[in-house]
Amino acid sequence: MSRITEIAPDIFRISTFIQELDIQFNQFVVRDEEPLLYHTGMRGLFPLVSEAVAGLIDPNKIRWIGFSHFEADECGALREWQRISPDATAICSLVSKIVSVDDVVAERPARALDDGELLVTGKFRFRFLKTPHVPHAWDAGHLYEENSGTFFSSDLFHQNGDVEPVTSSDIVGRFKEVLIEYQTGPFANYLPYTTKTEQILRRLADLKPKTIASMHGSTFIGDGEAALHDLAQAMKEVLA
Ligand SMILES: [Fe+2]
Ligand SMILES: [Fe+2]
User: Fold this and answer.
1) CA pair distance 184, 114, nearest whole angstrom
2) Strand 111-112 vs strand 150-154: parallel, antiparallel, or unpaired?
3) What is the three-class DSSP state of 110?
């Protein structure tokens, strides 16, 4: 079963906990004139996620499907979604589109967004930011919804365990624990630390988000600027 939580008005978190990996996979549905799905989840999750989405909106009416980078949990089920939603178009970086998405997972061509480009879906306004190698992958980008102050953080703020859907407590401590734990096992070097990491994270902090919607773990509601500065410090300490 997937768990649904409204994290901001008309922004919903769909969460499925995978016990063997001790990890939640979250997707976000934004209910608007042009409904948007952020992260498709893996293909194996499609039956569960699509059932959950159907409780919120007509899943055949999804207009935009966003994600950070080319990976199964980000966009693995894009084709499945596009087969049931005839107007659904993927939105991603140009690198994502050209290097992987259009060839591997898209039923029809993705729309590449430029750095700083705005996508208006009705009452919501999504700003796209190019963030190469943050959280990871050359093609990475992020969406920030300006009206609600919601930052869709992908793997940034990753927390393990079947944690609460929403919290106002610190999530950076949990994120740091994941980084430290992963460094000693098969998932070592999960996130890179490059010469651009700090600068990119500072730019994200400058958005001053009120809500941080993480793909793995709780959504954070609070001082997003401080949380991103703390996250930058944690990444530097563990990975630099
Ligand atoms: Fe990822
Ligand atoms: Fe992920």
Assistant:
1) 37
2) unpaired
3) coil
Ligand 2 center from residue 215 Cα (angstroms): 6
Residue 71 Cα, ligand 1 centroid: separation in angstroms? Answer: 6
Backbone CA torsion sign across 208, 127, 26, 160: negative
Which regions in the chain score pLDDT beneath 70? none
| Residue given tokens 């943050």 in the structure block | 134
Residue whose token pair is 């940034």? 156
CATH of the domain at 71: 3.60.15.10
217: which 2 tokens? 């773990």
Q: Are the CB atoms for 157 and 220 separated by under 8 Å? A: yes
pTM of the model: 0.98
Ligand located closest to 216 CA: 2
Residue 11 Cα to ligand 2 middle (Å): 19
Structurally, the chain folds into a number of domains equal to 1
Report how far ligand 1's centroid is from the alpha carbon of 90 (Å). 17
How far, in Å, from the CA of 74 to the mean position of ligand 2? 6
- Give distance in angstroms: CA of 28 to centre of ligand 1: 16
**From the CA of 216, how far away is ligand 2's center (Å)?**
7
Closest CA to 172 of 185, 190, 153: 153
Range of the domain at 77: 3-239
Structure tokens at 139: 């093609």
Portion of the chain with pLDDT greater than 70, in percent:
100
Alpha helices in the chain (DSSP H): 46-54, 72-75, 78-84, 94-96, 102-104, 172-183, 197-205, 224-239
